[in-house]
Amino acid sequence: MRLLRQITSLNVLALCLALNSTALFNAAIDSLRHLPHKYHALTPIYTSENIDEGIWIPEYDLHTQNYKTNHVYKPIPEASAGISLLEQAVEAGSSDAAAALGDIYTFGNFLVPTNYTKALLYYHKAIATKANGHAYFMLGYMYSTGMFGEIPQNKQKAAVYYEFAAKNDDLNAILVLANNFYHGIGRAADCGVSKFYYATAARKTMSVLSQLAPETINEFLTYNIALPDYNGGIYGRRVSESPSSTTNKVSNFLALRESIRDLNFESQDSNLIDYYFNAYENYHGGHFKDRNYTEAYVNSIMCVVQGDEKFGGAYFELATDIDKYFLSKCHGLLSKLYLNGHGVQRNLTRAYAWLRSAQKIYNEPETLLTFAQFHNLDPSYTGGFTDKGLRYLRDAASNNSARAAFILSKSGIAPKHPLQTTYTKSNYDLVKFAAKKDILEALFYFADAVESGFGASVGDKYECEHVVGFYKEFVERSEKIVLPHIKYAFEEFRYGNFKNSLLGFLIAAEQGLINSQISAAYLLQQLEPLFPFKKKIQHGSRIRSAIAYLELASAQDHLDATVLLGDFYSTGFNSANISADFTQAFAYYSKAALSASSHGCYKLGYMYEYGLGSPNNTKDYFMAKRYYDLSRKYTKDRDLSQLSQIKASTFPVTLALLRLRFKMLFNGSSNERELDSTGWFSTFEKLRKSKEVEKHENTAQAKSEAHLEGGNYDGDDEYETFDYIVLIFTIAFFVYMALENVRGHFRRMDRRREAPGNQNVNAEANNRFGVQFFFAI
Ligand SMILES: *[C@@H]1O[C@H](CO)[C@@H](O)[C@H](O)[C@H]1NC(C)=O
Ligand SMILES: *[C@@H]1O[C@H](CO)[C@@H](O)[C@H](O)[C@H]1NC(C)=O
Ligand SMILES: *[C@@H]1O[C@H](CO)[C@@H](O)[C@H](O)[C@H]1NC(C)=O
Ligand SMILES: *[C@@H]1O[C@H](CO)[C@@H](O)[C@H](O)[C@H]1NC(C)=O
Ligand SMILES: *[C@@H]1O[C@H](CO)[C@@H](O)[C@H](O)[C@H]1NC(C)=O
Ligand SMILES: *[C@@H]1O[C@H](CO)[C@@H](O)[C@H](O)[C@H]1NC(C)=O
Ligand SMILES: *[C@@H]1O[C@H](CO)[C@@H](O)[C@H](O)[C@H]1NC(C)=O
Ligand SMILES: *[C@@H]1O[C@H](CO)[C@@H](O)[C@H](O)[C@H]1NC(C)=O
């Protein structure tokens, strides 16, 4: 009896202690939750005004273990109370409090200076008493990266902690494992296991997504950006070949503003368009502009008022189609704002009225879809669509609305629970259509259908790599839910906290996000292949890390990263104890060339021309010429397909080709593999003619396309430059030959003085033949 009482009182005490630490932890979280955002009321160093001038990362200082920046922030004073509560909670044995403190010292929350050693201690404390998925993950991450040399790197420990974290349902760790198994990082590659992990991550993501309002999901803003793209890409605007990550649906649409205004020149009023674009920008926000629904509401009201003034009643006929389209869009946006209570009090009656007027002005399938959704707001709604709602939905789907197609298919695929799925041919087709049209959740169900074998049963054959690709894309596009550290990294970058930014990008890089791998490499070792004069001190360990992340990006076919690796290996890095390795460089250039990289082909041609890293290190002009030609072809293809205002320059290739031509010429016709055995002048003629034909085709096509897009076209200089270069080389060539001739003439004159008169005629004939011969080449 006494024993029992003792045990009970012990239990009570233990309970008290546990309650006490939990209470402390909760009190701490309560006090910290209400603090303003860490950068509240501070000005970022990169804004929408200055970002177009490009970005610049200061040098890293090994001694202070930070970048040499003037932006030093002080901790938020109000946070200290909460932090000391957390410390008390840790004392009382709270695992969650230890993990929270670990995060504060890792990520610099509340602008607390980071201290990775301290953070590591806290994470270890967090897992001392009970399992904690997040703390396991952070330990895995810290040991895997070594935190830029601040704690000892230990890949074995990292692997163990990642496994623990994944077992404890940590989504971040699951993604790291999925990526590591796919690319065989630290283990043998195994697509099957990778697929398992990606599917797990995707299902977790989907169960969160399904609780959000459907309209918000496709309006996620992504921060998945490769930082060098703000400078036009790793190699700047003209040479970089990887698609830019800084544009998205919103920025692409906003970029149309000018061209649409130009197209609408017949209109009486183009302010309408400006109002709509402003409303759209405020509604969606951007990387350098916060959302502001109030502003969006004001802009759309202005747009509607202007529209009524100009085109109300009898004047409606004056409006161009473009005016009508944008006026209808303004009405539609107002309806959306009323419907969701954004920027204005929620009012369904008004929302419905605005939608009706939007439809009257300009009929669009998306309007039908919104009508369908309205019918769900009916008080008699029981979960299924009303007949009328269903009719709207079908109409919208048959008018190509991907969203409507998805909603229709989903009611068949997963009627009760988002993860309990059954497929039929018709809803599989609908969901496939929606997935192709970029509907986020549709991507999940499509991948799920393929993985469950339904895809194969209707004749769609996909490999393991494809399924992994679908899941990976789904998870990465759900960034807002799954990968909040990317937004963190971007924000830290904007406020000049590059060390924290690197931390965030590195987590995503470990999880296989290609743009984050590039950003991480960029922050680790400021790759500025364009500005060799801005040389910074390079640190060996950071260069090696940067190369490792570039290699991961290259494994995912990032062209610029592949070429850059080639450049690294062809020069070598003394500070990183990496000596020049032409074979390696050659391999990277070949890889890029195989993926139709014009830059890669150029470099490969160069390697062949000088016999660097080519098979047996032999010079091979034939192969060199082939790759230079390919390089020029790819550049042109790219210019045509992109229709970008900035044309890639073919100047270096042209120069290289001419150089090569001379080399071939002087190496004589003994080079039997040379293709242009017909001689210099005819080649020149041929080249010029083919250029002429191409030029006409190119300009005609590009001009017509540019016209369609409303852009302007000026691509003529490139060909003029080419002609000038040819001209200069031709003149140089003839001058050289003329000098040679004159020299020969003098030599012969000397000889003639000594020789008997009879042979003069022969020498003369030879001489004349020589001159003719030269001009006939
Ligand atoms: C927690 O428990 C300790 C003793 O175990 C006590 O001194 C302290 O006041 C308690 N704190 C709270 C907030 O209950
Ligand atoms: C980081 O934390 C550790 C352990 O608490 C401490 O010894 C060290 O001095 C701290 N470093 C800095 C720079 O504050
Ligand atoms: C949004 O715009 C309104 C009006 O211009 C302004 O008063 C408000 O502060 C803005 N809100 C935010 C969050 O910037
Ligand atoms: C919604 O708008 C209608 C029409 O303008 C108005 O009669 C009604 O009172 C509003 N409802 C609310 C809840 O504000
Ligand atoms: C959509 O398609 C239906 C036929 O399925 C047609 O009656 C309707 O007018 C179309 N609506 C729009 C907005 O094009
Ligand atoms: C540099 O690398 C070579 C071989 O790769 C190795 O033998 C040498 O010890 C390294 N030197 C340093 C300082 O790491
Ligand atoms: C390289 O040289 C070796 C020996 O000289 C020769 O057997 C081999 O065929 C050459 N390889 C190539 C690709 O030329
Ligand atoms: C020049 O021609 C000779 C004979 O064919 C060949 O062996 C040599 O490799 C060529 N030189 C270069 C640099 O290609």
From TrEMBL:
UniProt entry keywords in alphabetical sequence:
Membrane, Signal, Transmembrane, Transmembrane helix
Basic and acidic residues compositional bias: what residue ranges?
A: 692-708
Query: Which range is the signal sequence, renumbered to this chain?
Result: 1-18
Q: Which family does it belong to?
A: Belongs to the sel-1 family.
Q: Which InterPro entries match?
A: Sel1-like, Sel1_AlgK, TPR-like_helical_dom_sf
Q: Which residue ranges are recorded for the region named Disordered?
A: 692-711
Task: Specify the protein name.
Answer: ERAD-associated E3 ubiquitin-protein ligase component HRD3
Q: Which residues cross the membrane?
A: 724-742
SUPFAM superfamilies the UniProt entry points to: HCP-like
Q: Does the keyword Transmembrane helix apply?
A: yes
